[in-house]
Specification:
171 residues; alpha/beta; 5 strands; 40% helix; 18% strand; globular
């Protein structure tokens, strides 16, 4: 899935009704002009990072288990312990991307089911890593705290499309 994300522009507004059109030829030209690229995939069980060079060759990839979706109850909020595991993993992965010459503001962060399904209402003034948070609040606070330039929650359809295209590209 991550390779497909690097080859396609991230939609300005991901979510219900957003259209994702992947045009590998034009997106590849865009990527070649801007140099190295990095994408983070924040899933229910792990965070994955991939860094590619100007030619689209993978120069670094890593996966850290975080179990973000574990223990989400009827309140549909992400537990603070899970958030802390993700924050620790992101700290390591953002540093790795920066070591490979991709600054945090150039990293694409996409979240999938765990964040998408965390639709509960958190208490007022809830903070990252300290309180249970909704997926939307969690993702926006993560992006802000880590200086990540582009963050989006993929719809189920978008997640499936990127996964399919990533598998086709990798095959």
């Amino acid at each position: 899935m991550l390779i497909a994300l690097l080859l396609a522009p991230l939609p300005a507004r991901a979510g219900k009704g957003a259209k994702v059109k992947l045009r590998p030829g034009s997106a590849t030209k865009l990527r070649l002009r801007r140099g190295r690229a990095a994408a983070l995939d924040l899933g229910s069980n792990s965070v994955k990072l991939i860094v590619t060079n100007r030619r689209g060759k993978v120069v670094y990839d890593a996966k850290l288990n975080t179990a973000l979706g574990q223990g989400v109850g009827a309140d549909k909020l992400l537990p603070s312990a899970n958030q802390k595991r993700v924050m620790s993993a992101l700290r390591k992965l953002v540093q790795a991307a920066e070591k490979h010459k991709v600054p945090a503001k150039k990293i694409r962060l996409v979240a999938t089911a765990a964040v998408r399904n965390a639709t509960g209402k958190e208490r007022s003034g809830a903070k990252l890593g300290e309180h249970k948070l909704s997926g939307k609040t969690f993702l926006s606070q993560l992006a802000k705290d880590f200086g990540i330039g582009r963050a989006a929650v993929l719809s189920g359809k978008q997640e499936a499309e990127h996964g399919y295209r990533g598998a086709i590209i990798a095959w």
